[in-house]
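ping. complex inputs:
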Amino acid sequence: MSEYHKPLPKPSPVSAPYWDAVRRHELILQKCGGCGAFIYYPRPRCPQCLSENLEWRSVSGRGKLYSYTVVRRASSRAFADGPYVLAIVELDEGPRMTTNLIVEPERIKIGMPVTVVFDDVTPEHTLVKFKPA
Ligand SMILES: [Zn+2]
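pong. complex structure:
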């Protein structure tokens, strides 16, 4: 029985390859065969050109902090273990991910380089977070 009480991902047929890779501690994104864009979040067609010709590619896991907020007052009981940093990270490949940044709030600077970390929150679930590079 897991001690983890926060909501967990429920992979869809489209997002399952992403979550399977994350469990292996690998970050993959869809890359469009039509226009070359990397895509996040997983979806059935490219949001730029609507192509359905998408392939999964390994990406660097590096990026920079685009925006953030420090959550000190939780929106639900499950997140009452704060404060925590809710961040938007712009990956080197282009897409922006909403994520958690593992850092003391005093150290945060917009644009700071960050790198992915994989948080195995249960035996079956791994979450993608970031830390300063
Ligand atoms: Zn495209």
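Residues 10-59 form a domain with the Rubrerythrin, domain 2 fold (CATH 2.20.28).
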